[in-house]
Design brief:
alpha/beta
Amino acid sequence: MSQALLVVGDVVTDIVARHVGPLAAGTDTAAVIRTLPGGAGANVACWAAHWGCPDVRLLGRVGTEAVAWHERELTASGVRPHLVIDREAPTGTVICLVDAGASAERTFLTDSGASLRLEPGDWSDALLDGVVRLHLSGYLFFSEPSRALATKALEAARARGVPVSLDPASAGFLSGLGVDRFLALAAGVDVLLPSRDEACLLTGLPDPADAAAKLSRLVPLVVAKQGAEGALVAVSGAVRARIPAAPATPRDTTGAGDAFTGAFLATLLAGSKPEEAAAEGCRAGAMAVEKVGARPAKGVR
């Protein structure tokens, strides 16, 4: 019997520019620039497959100019793509400016393009056939059509008894949407996987452990990603475990949170406890920051 994970989310083209030191305004800044496949939803799917999930499916929307490339890249990563072709909008594009110094911190310039034009008509309940978990990228909540699709998918999953996980995706976009609105849309989700900043923003609490604990009164399981400080697992209003980070020397932090989420979900689906799954998530996050780009290297981990 199939034990599939269905991810619904964004598929984008990442243009990663690695530079050293501050950008020089009004003139040239030397950089190493690469074009890579990305998108939070697609990245999570690829990391879940890389971490051993035998059947990972992805619903996303792309423009005509890049559909063949994205399908090839996803398939090569072990993901079964269900890509809706948008005839009017180009594939979403993100320019990732990565400081190649010690912090490897990154700044995103985002053109969502086709990725947030997923709409209810792109959904079919048949997508859930054989699926034992649905994962939603929080980016879906940041446009009207994809928000409606996310709600439809969540309702369909709940009707079938399929648990649903959600990654809030972006503190910046969350601020624009509004915390109360986001939490209302997330009602019925089983697992929430916020970053430290997202957890604090969603609760108004400055301490990430307090924030994770508070969120776990709203969602049964909260796994808060803490970057270099590991992860927090919270249940029923209390932090149940603090998971240490795996050691890493950062080169590019793009996609580290997606790596965590993908490995966490794959491990959870294999029958492990949330604490064990979070430890695997930390391992994947460490692996992600040591390479350029948001996807795992193809092959054995």
